[in-house]
Amino acid sequence: MTHPFARTNRKERSAPAPVLEGLTLMEELPACRAARRWKGRDAHGEPWTAYLVRAGREESTPLEVRERLMPLVSLSHPHLLPVDRVTSGEGGRVWVVSPYTGNHDGLVTLASLLPMKDGGQMSQAEAERAVLHTLEAMGDLHERGLYHGPLRADELLVDRHGSVMIELPCVLRLAQGLKRGDAELVRDEIHSLGVIAYRLLTGLEPGTPCIPASRLVKRLSRAWDAWLETALDESAGFFSVADAIAALPMSADSTGASESSEQPAVRTRAAGLLRRIPGVGKSW
Q1: What is the reported pTM?
Q2: What does the pLDDT look like over 42-94, one tens digit per residue?
Q3: What single string gives the DSSP state of each residue in 30-97?
Q4: Domain residue ranges in the chain
Q5: Assigned architecture for domain 10-99
Q6: H/E stretch holding 28
Q7: How far is CA 21 from the centre of its chain?
Q8: Distance between CA atoms of 137 and 157, rounded to whole angstroms?
């Protein structure tokens, strides 16, 4: 079934932009799984992304959906897209407003970035950075008792500094009234990141059976094969972010990190990795 936000017909594209207090909505951007997106500016000319959130369960009222999303305003992490406010627009529809991270062409996601890379794939250093940023964001959510659910590459934003952020963290699940998580959900989240990582490294989707990435990419560390094999195992896999971080290639200084010390360990690892990537201050 086609997602209701997956396509926008000509009549919808030519329709007047919705009205949202405090913002002038100028351009509708491609929709994502959780919401329709608009680029807007405030009274000071600052750019923002306004998200018209996909409706939750049929029995949920807009007020209930808005209340479920309100805790996201308190999130503060370098790899989670900040939620500046959750508000209501015309007809009581629920909106989320976040800083605009894109360029003049629109938002940049891992999914939109890959086709612009040679061979549709990233270097080992770039892929490791993207995976690490995402794992760090997952870990912060889990510490707060929040779960985004399985990820897609078009939900991972890349800002102008090459930093990766989860867009609309947990919005889809919370809008649907889903909050609780368990080890199986964590495994599924990391499995989805494994699929993304395989594509970042090889430019291909993992098949069945999965060809080891080192056979497809010259000079790729075989440590990636072991990490991907575990992450992509739907019956075993990684059951915690700490385990996934500890096993991540080139992450020896994170080995042995417990869940209670996970975030400092990941931040230390990220800082060291960023210093080793040439041109880290430039966009990918």
Answers
A1: 0.82
A2: 999 999 999 999 876 777 889 999 999 999 999 999 999 999 999 998 888 99
A3: PP-SSEEEEEEE-TT--EEEEEEEPP--TT--HHHHHHHHGGGGG---TTB----EEEE-GGG-EEEE
A4: 10-99, 110-276
A5: 2-Layer Sandwich (3.30)
A6: strand 24-29
A7: 27
A8: 12
